[in-house]
Predict the structure of Nudix hydrolase domain-containing protein.
Amino acid sequence: MIEHIPFLRPKRYVTIIVVFVLSLFIYSYNASINALTNDTIDHHAAATSNEEDLTVYQLPERFREPTHLTPIDPAVLIEMGTESIDSAHRKGLLHIGGILYVMDAAGKFLLMKRSSSVVTCPDTWSIVGEHSIGGEDAGNLPIRALEEELGLDASYIGATIKNLTEHPLYYIRKYGARNGNRIDRQLTYLWLVKLPKRQQEIDWRLDHEVADKKWITLELFDHWLQADEANDSTVNESNEEDDDGPPVGDFCHRTIRSLLRLGIARLKVIL
Ligand SMILES: *[C@@H]1O[C@H](CO)[C@@H](O)[C@H](O)[C@H]1NC(C)=O
Ligand SMILES: *[C@@H]1O[C@H](CO)[C@@H](O)[C@H](O)[C@H]1NC(C)=O
Ligand SMILES: *[C@@H]1O[C@H](CO)[C@@H](O)[C@H](O)[C@H]1NC(C)=O
Ligand SMILES: *[C@@H]1O[C@H](CO)[C@@H](O)[C@H](O)[C@H]1NC(C)=O
């Protein structure tokens, strides 16, 4: 059994929440443990679910390993076919995703809490996020994410959607032996979604796995992330090259936190 990612409707659990998601793996313990030892688990999972696969990519040789949060023009990517999310993470294959800063007419931003039943980063806060599926156009991702995760029709409600960076940003998160040596290599688009109404006036249909949600100002969001960074220095993150350490803090881990803060810095310029 693959565990549903929070904030998604069960039938679309493949498309994921990223924020942490972004990165997150989403398995039941059984699936995780099996996957460590049995390479056929993916085929099995694919055959017994309607999971939609991710398009995976390679960077040209000259790129080597980009540094964290490097913007990369997707035009340079070399398409390498499709893989299940599990397989893409186990093989560390580059894929595409997006995170959405959803802002209402009062200027508050939507944060959502992952349920306590997910294996990766349970009970942590995040924003709307998705993996790109089936090689979809970048611009389609935020529209689909709004529909699947929040039950919103972007054109009906009159949402304005803007990219916060010219190109998606590269990140890599190594989950180490604790998690089957999975590696999340993702190019992430950052989107601002402006809603023309206050959140109280909107008919939300959040995925049932969202444990909690809150609307806060950009300043408060940023201060919270900044305070959360202090958690990093109080834990002994693994010094091993293939392990970026366990999740810690209210926002899962530093990879996601730094991505979120970069988006906030862009928002401060744009808004
Ligand atoms: C892996 O799983 C397949 C079917 O799911 C099974 O036939 C095979 O014996 C398993 N291999 C190992 C090493 O567990
Ligand atoms: C959004 O994307 C377009 C097209 O790539 C680009 O020209 C524009 O500069 C981007 N906006 C920001 C804020 O980077
Ligand atoms: C991490 O920092 C936050 C402040 O954002 C605090 O609320 C939380 O309890 C800390 N968590 C851990 C595990 O230290
Ligand atoms: C931190 O981790 C390193 C490498 O895993 C280990 O050698 C060291 O003893 C740890 N330090 C503490 C204070 O736990």
Q: What stands out?
A: The pocket of 2-acetamido-2-deoxy-beta-D-glucopyranose (ligand 4) is lined by residues 236, 238-239 (CB under 6 Å). Residues 218-234 form the longest helix (17 residues).
